Predict the 3D structure of the following.
Amino acid sequence: MVRLADGLDAYNQLSDEAMQRAMDCLTRFGQLLRDMPPGTVRITGTNTLRKARNAARLISHAEQVLGHPIEIISGIEEARLIYLGVAHGLSDTEGQRLVVDIGGGSTELILGQGFNPTYMESLYMGCVSFSKRFFHQGEISRKKIQRARIAALQELEPVVATYKSLGWQQSIGASGTIRSVQKVANTMQLTSEGISTAAIDEILNQLGNFKRFEDIELPGLSTERKPVFPGGLCVLSAVFTALEIEHMKVADTALREGLLYDLLGRNSNEDVRNRTVDSLIKRYQINDDHATNVTTSTLNLLQQVEASWKLSDQNLKQLLYWAAYLHEIGRDISHQSYHKHGAYILHNADMPGFSRQEQQVLASLVRAHRRKFPLEEFEQYPDKQAKLLLRLAILLRLAVVLHRSRNTDDMPSLSIDVAKKNITLVFEHGWLENHTLTQADLEQEAGYLDKTGYQLTLQ
C-alpha cells in the first residue's frame, strides 16, 4: 500500500518520500505494462492527485516508466466508475441501490439502478486523510474518535436530505476500508455477513481501548491496514448514522473493475463519452447540422495531413472530433466571446467518461478555434503535446472559417498540403474569386496564424 494521501502536507504538496514510494511501486508495474498496445491499459489518479499541487511532477515520471498515460479523474467520475464496477459484480435486483466507497482521501456516495448511476456525490473525507487529521502521530483516544465522527457528519450534512428523499432499497459498501470492517466484524462474530450498525458501534468501542495505531489488536485486521483503520471506521460510522443505515452488504468489486468495464465499452463502440457529448449538444442547444458540417470538414483536413503532421494518435483524433462538435457550446451563454465561455464549460463541467486532462484538451481546442490565437493556452502542455494540439487547433479553425457563412450548398472541393509550418489550401479553379468573403476570412486567418509561426497560403 503506497498511501499517497499520507504524503500531502498542509499546502497540498506531495512529499519526496511519498513520490518515491509511488515510483517504486509503479516501476514494477511498468515492467509488465510497457509493451502492451496503446488503448489496452487505463491508469487513473483520484483524490490525492486531484489535490496535489505538484502532481504533474509525479505524473511525468510515472508515465515514462509505465509507458502509458495517467488520467486524473474527478470525484464524480470516480463515483460513476465505482458504481459501474460494483453493479457488474452483483446480481441484478429491482429498486435503487446506495453504494458507499471510502477511499484514501474521498468518500463516494452513489444511488443507482441496474448499471446506471442516478445521483452521485464525492466528499472530501477518507481513511488516510481522517487518520492523519484526527489521530496525529498515531495516537488514539475516545475524544479523538468522537471528533472524527462529528467532522464526518458535518461533511455529510449538506447531502443527507437529498439522499433520504430519493431513497434506496439496498445499501452496498466497496473497497478496502469497508471490506476490512466487514472482516473484523465477521471474525469477532458480530455479523455473519456484511456490516451492521451494532457491529460498527462495538468495533469503535474496542478501538477506544488502544492508545496508538501499533497497539491495535482487532481480530481480522491486517497490520498494514492499522494506520488508516481508525479514520476509515469513523467515516463509515458517520455514514451509517447520517443515512440511518442498519445493514450494509459488501461488494468484492469497485473502481478497478469499473475501469475495466468502461475500457471494454470504449473498445466495443459503447463509449460513455459519446453519450456525454450528445447530452451536452442537447443541453446547450448546439446547432447539430452546423456542428456536423464543421466536424466533417475538420476530419477531412486531418485525414490529408495526418502523416505529414504526425497526428495519428487515436485519442487526440477522437478529442478533435468532439471539440469540433462542441465548438459552439458557449453560444448558449452569450454570443460575445462564446469560444471563451465554451472553454470554461468544458474545463469545469462534470463530463462522465472524460478525464480532467481530456476535458482540458477539449477546452483548449474550443478556446482556440476563433479570433486571435491564444498561444498561452498551449504553454501548460509538454512541448511535444503542445505542438500536436496547436496543429489540431489550426485544422479546427480552418474548418470553422470555411463554414462561417453556414451555407453548405456551395462548399468547395479543396485539398490541403503541409510542410512543417507551411500550410497550402488548394481550391477549384476560380472558386475563391467567386467567394470573396470566404477569401477575405481566410486571409484574415492567415494573419492570425502568422503569430504562431505557421504560414497559410491560398491557391
Q: What stands out?
A: The mean pLDDT is 95. Residues 142-166 form the longest helix (25 residues). Residues 412 and 431 are 7 Å apart (CA to CA). The first strand starts at residue 43 and ends at 45.
